[in-house]
Amino acid sequence: MQDSHTSETNQKSIEATIVSGILSARIRPGTRLGENQLAALFDVSRTRVREAMMRLETRGIVHVSPRRGWFVVEPSAEDAIAVYEARRIVEAGLLRSMRVLTEEGRKALEAHLNEERNAMAAGDRQRLTYLMGDFHIRIAELSGNAIIVDILRDLTARTILISILYQSEFHAAQSHEGHCRIFEAMQAGDFAKAATLAVEHLDEVEMGLDLTARPDPLSDLRNSLSLPPKAASAVSRQSDLKTATSKEQ
Fold first, then answer.
1. Rg for the chain (alpha carbons), in Å?
2. I want to staple 14 with a disulfide (CB 3.0 to 4.6 A). Which of 39, 52, 115, 156 is the partner?
3. Keywords in UniProt for this one (predicted)?
4. Strand, coil or helix: what is 180?
5. Is the Cβ–Cβ distance between 82 and 211 less than 8 Å?
6. Does the structural domain 77-207 have CATH classification 1.20.120.530?
């Protein structure tokens, strides 16, 4: 029988793995998270899985649908606006509160920016998605405040879900340049400027979202059938036309 420490570790492992999957865009909005499957994968009881899911629900990462189970959230346009506003407040406040960038911190951010450049050169979209979000989490880690790190990690995970749903183009170079400007201001010890640049960077990313878009409930099936959106729409229109013609006859 598992002791309480082991159970707590397993719950945190489930939560951390799911959040990590979202941060790297491997887990998409609306993904069903089956209790039985997770229990088998983590070798825990369904009760432990359910407890982990409930914790993720309070963090705004998953939601439960009656008689259907747990699903990764699909943020609405209103959610997107609220999440970006929260990130602006948290990140600007964090940077304004900083007084110095240590040599260790400088090296960590510099190495991270090099990773971004390498991923762009390799055209590794999934790796870039993770790195673009992780840059902000790394800055939070420099503060040494675990609560802020947890808050920003959850907000960043929700941002990734928002991007998957509403971002029509992936502007990696633009995001990377924004990160470089923030880093340069931090290196110069101008954390007020770094805070302003962070807000501008988040504004740019939010402006790149199409919040009029609606999640496609058939996206997984569409991808499985290798149907591009236009082709799928054409199929739908043809089906509607045949139905209308049949009714007229």
1. 21
2. 52
3. DNA-binding, Transcription, Transcription regulation
4. helix
5. no
6. yes
